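Subject line: Sequence and fold of a protein, written as structure tokens
Area: Proteins and the way their chains fold up in space.
Start of record: The labelled sequence and token lines come straight after this line.
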Amino acid sequence: MSNPTSPKNITLPSKDEDAAIVAAANADPDAQPLTDQQLAAMIPMRSLRGRPRSTSKKLLVSVRFSPEVIAWFRSTGDGWQSRMDGVLREYVARHSH
């Protein structure tokens, strides 16, 4: 079992100390408070994480290819699956008329 920790004693600044801290922060040209316009333009970080949403969504499927085909595409380095998709797209474009 974990040992419970005793609560930390936090001392809040007095009104004078708080006013001095706020004044010092406001006097710093590199740390100015955000304007209402800047706050309104902020975007939650979780919406920026990950890959951008694609306009053409890909489908996850299970396909079996010969070992030689997979070995060749893998030997071309990172992005081999995208290159494989490109080859198949090219084939479809040439053969769909």
